[in-house]
Amino acid sequence: MEQLFYRSTRGAGEPVTASQAILQGLARDGGLYVPERIPRLENTLEELAEMSYPETAYAVMKQFFTDFTEEELKGCIAKAYDSKFDTPEIAPLRKAEDLFYLELFHGATIAFKDMALSILPHLMTVSARKNGVKNEIVILTATSGDTGKAALAGFADVEGTRIVVFYPKDGVSLIQEKQMVTQKGANTLVVGIRGNFDDAQSGVKAMFGDRALEQKLQAAGFQFSSANSINIGRLVPQVAYYVYAYAKLRKQGELGPGETLNVTVPTGNFGNILAAYYAKAMGVPLGKLVCASNENKVLFDFFRTGTYDRNREFILTSSPSMDILVSSNLERLIYQVAGQDPQRNAAFMEQLNRTGVYTLPEEMRGRLQDFYGGYTDEAGTAEAIRQVYQAAGYILDPHTAVAAHVAKAYRQETGDTAKMLVVSTASPYKFTRSVLSAIQPEYGRQEDFALADALSQLSGIPIPRAIEDIRSAPVLHRTVCEKEEMPKVVKGFLGVKSES
Questions:
Q1: What's the domain range around 239?
Q2: Residue 17 near residue 67 (C-beta atoms within 8 A)
Q3: Which of 15, 56, 159, 419 is most deeply packed, by most CB within 10 A?
Q4: Distance between CA atoms of 218 and 344, rounded to whole angstroms?
Q5: For 455-489, what is each residue's pLDDT tens digit?
Q6: pTM for the full model?
C-alpha cells in the first residue's frame, strides 16, 4: 500500500508518518496533523456490510495508518474492541420514530470517546516502539467531561505512559466528575481547574508550545503527547463508525444501493463531525452533515455567517461536553477549504488567537456546502428527551437530544427527506438528573445515584457497570488549581523541579 504522510495545518516541518503524528499529537508549530490526501475505501459497501466492527475498523484504519503492519494494527484493534464493550456489535443502531440512532456509548465509560480512546493507547505504544522512543510519554488532556474519563481508562497503568487530565471544576456533571476523580492507576492524575473548558484546553496547548518546558522534560526522560481529538490517532478511529453505520443500514435493507444518508452530530470540538466528513470523502454516500450545537452556538453562527467569533458569554448547559467556544478540530476543515494552504490557514488561526474572530471569504464559504448548522436551547433539549420517550419509549441523553431536535428542525426548514442518522454520544445514565427532569420533573429532588435506579425502572435497561463501579468508589484525586498553575502541577506530578 502506498505510504500516507501527514502535514501540519500550519505548514512548518517535513511530512511525518502516521506513527510519528500519533506520538507528537500536536505539530511543533501549533498546527494539527492532517493526511496529505483522504484515501478511498478499498472495499465495496456490500463487502463492508458483511464485516464485524473490528473488521470494519481495520478496513478503514489501514488506509490511514500505512506505516503499521497488518499484525500491529489488528493487534491494537483486538485489544480495543473487546469485552470492555457491553455488546458484540460495539456500535449498535436503533430506530426510534423516523430517525436512526448510532449508539456509541457501550464502552467502559459509557460515552462515544471510548470508540477512539480504547485504541489510542495501543496505537501510541506501538508508535513509540516503531520510532525507538525511550522517553516516558506524558499524555496531557483537557476535557469537557467525557474525554477525560475515557482517556484515563485507556491509559491507566499502560507501561511507559503517564496521563494528566484537566477539567473545569464546576463545568461537568456530578457523575462525570465522580468517574474521573475515582480513577485508579499509579500513572494517572486528575486536576480540576478554576475556569471553563476553553481555559483548560488553551492551557494544555500552551504547554505543548512551551519549548523551555519541553527541554526540561526531555532532560528528565519525558515527552508530551495528547489524547484530545487534536491527535490524529483519535480522529481516524472515529471515521470507522460512520462506515460501519452506513454498511449496516444497507445490510438491514434500510438503504438502497448508493442511497444518501444524512448525519446529525452533536458537537463542540468538531472532531466527531469531521470524522463523518472524512468518511464521506472516502466514498461513503453521506449527504448533509448537520452540526448540532447547544446554546454555546459558535459553530451554528459560523456555518450561518462565515464568521467564527469566540468572544461571547460561556453558558453552562445540560449538555456539558458541548460547552465549548474554541472548536479545535475546525482548523482541519479550514485548512481543507483553504485549498490545503497552510499559510492561509495559519493566518486565520493567528487572527483567532489575537482577536477571537475570523471571517472566511466567500469562495471558502462556498466549500462548506456539505455542512448545515443548527442549534437548540435548554427547553428544546428537554422537549426532545420527553417527546422521543413518549413517542417511542427511547431515552436520549442531553447531547443526543440536542442532535435529535436539530435533525427534526433541519428537515422542517429544508424539506430534505433523506434518511437521517443521529449520532448518540452518551448513555442517559451519565446525565440522570437532566434526563429524568425532562421526562418527569418530580424526579429532580432525588440524589444522583437514586436517579440511576429510577432511570433503570423507567427504561428497563440495567444500570451500566460504569455507574455501579463509582457508586461507592473512594475519591483518589483532589487537586484543584488556577489555570496559570497547570505547568507547575504537571511538573510536580512528574517530579521535575520548578524554578524557584
A1: 93-109+233-461
A2: yes
A3: 56
A4: 33
A5: 999 888 899 999 999 988 999 999 999 999 999 99
A6: 0.92
